[in-house]
Amino acid sequence: MHGGDIYRNSIHFDFSVNTNPLGVPSEVQWVLTEAALHAVRYPDISHERLIGETAKIFDVLEDMVVYGNGASEIIMAICHAIMPKKAMLIAPCFSGYEYCLTGACGKCDIVYHELKEADSFRLTDDIIDAIKSEKPKVLFLTNPNNPNGLLVEKDLLERIILACESVGCTVILDECFITLTGREKELSLAYNIRKYKSLVVLRAFTKTFAIPGVRLGYAICSKKILADSIKAHLPEWNLSIFAQMAGAECLKHTDYISDSVRTINAERKYLTEALALLGLKVYPTDANYILFKTEKKDLAQRLLEYNILIRDCSDYIGLGEGYYRVAIKLNNENSGLISAIENILND
To answer: What does the pLDDT read at residue 134?
Structure first.
């Protein structure tokens, strides 16, 4: 199950997808319009401009950068490239990892390291013993985690990677939401990736620049040989001219990111406090989305009556009925969500 199913529901406010509440930057909208004029020709098969600009940002070789039609395409390519016999996932976490592991490596043994509700689903150092015991060939981590939104501190990440290196495990670190936490430069491993033996850091324009319909993501790999193996499992011309032009424009807009973080920080505080005042169990988050729990098991269905879509998290391993995730949006949208939930709870 994924969020964003506005096509089978009549939705005015979609809180089920965690995209930037400020929406698409106006400059990017103009570039997408301009791209239509170039649709008569093939896009650059090598994504040269995008890869060059991305390599400069992270101070890596261009051969260490891989672009895909969304991060999801890269995840599938990674699974095909590595073909692990055993993989470790965090529970709860993004379901796409399991989907790709199952699709690419049908007989992969998937083990789950379950996070504890008592710890607010925070990743702790007990995962290190699990890695040494289970000896997976690939570990998928998300920072911040999805659906609860808590960041993993750098010290713990470093120790997890060392543990993985000791058992010959490749780490896939999904940082698709980290930019919107405001702590990207402090916590991201992409800026010093050369020091690691077998690490892939995933990023996506989807959430940061609110362009999920464009489909654009990338990976920074610690070694060229790892990047090459992933590229070998991607189709040619996998990025449209719309995606390439929009991505190149997005990389210019650091002010937009700063404005986004300020808005998210303010609205996170408002929404967290407002949900708690309604008597819901709200879990701490560093991200642009919030996980909460309620006894109202049909809340998502009832909100459809208000043309509001939220993410029902009952399908996440480690969660269950009554868990929901909402994106942090602009104040008028957030207050509308609170009013609708209050009405439902008071029925």
So the answer is: 98
Q: What is the pLDDT of residue 6?
A: 67
The 3-class SS string of the chain reads CCCCCCCCCCCCEECCCCCCCCCCCHHHHHHHHHHHHHCCCCCCCCCHHHHHHHHHHHCCCHHHEEEECCHHHHHHHHHHHHCCCEEEEEECCCCHHHHHHHHHCCCCEEEEEECCHHHCCCCCCHHHHHHHHHCCCEEEEECCCCCCCCCCCHHHHHHHHHHHHHCCCEEEEECCCHHHHCCHHHHCCHHHHHHCCCEEEEEEHHHHCCCCCCCCEEEEECCHHHHHHHHCCCCCCCCCHHHHHHHHHHCCCHHHHHHHHHHHHHHHHHHHHHHHHCCCEECCCCCCEEEEECCCCCHHHHHHHHCEECEECCCCCCCCCCEEEEECCCHHHHHHHHHHHHHHHCC
List residues bridging with 173 in a β-sheet: 141, 201
pLDDT less than 50: residues of the chain = none
Dihedral over Cα of 121, 124, 126, 128: its sign: positive
Q: Where are the domains of the chain?
A: 13-23+254-345, 26-250
Instruction: State which fold the 13-23+254-345 domain adopts.
Output: Aspartate Aminotransferase, domain 1 (3.90.1150)
pTM of the model: 0.96
Fold of domain 26-250? Aspartate Aminotransferase; domain 2 (3.40.640)
